[in-house]
Design a protein that fits this description.
The chain is of the alpha+beta class. Helices cover 34% and strands 14% of the residues. It has helices spanning 2-6, 50-58, 63-70, 74-83; strands at residues 13-16, 19-23, 44-45, 48-49. The strands form 2 sheets. A two-stranded antiparallel ribbon has the order 1-2. Strands 3-4 form a two-stranded antiparallel ribbon. β1 and β2 form a beta hairpin. α2 (50-58) packs across α4 (74-83). The longest helix has 10 residues, at 74-83. The model has no long low-confidence stretch (mean pLDDT 92).
């Protein structure tokens, strides 16, 4: 019964020595992950906490400036903001 209920959840984790060490809360196709060894376990993209990306976005900075400052790309910003509750596809498109 547990396989039916939780089976798909187990695929969201990366394992090392049979221990879950990294979680992909938006799925493995997303660039966002949680790893207690990186960024104190905060959800992040390439070591940049998603809350920091959202704070810069909320502060009115352009997506291009955020991407350049953190050395991340458009998809990574989109994934980070999606985790933070902002869906860019519903907003003005950017490249």
């Amino acid at each position: 019964a547990w396989q039916t209920i939780l089976g798909a959840k187990f695929t969201e984790f990366d394992y090392q020595d049979d221990l879950a060490v990294r979680w992909h809360p938006l799925g493995k196709k997303s660039t966002v992950f949680i790893d207690p060894r990186i960024s104190f376990g905060a959800p992040n993209v390439k070591g940049v906490a998603t809350w920091a990306i959202r704070a810069r976005y909320d502060g009115g900075e352009s997506l291009e400036d955020i991407a350049e400052d953190f050395s991340i790309n458009c998809r990574e910003i989109d994934d980070a903001l999606k985790l933070e509750g902002i869906n860019l596809s519903e907003l003005k498109a950017w490249s």
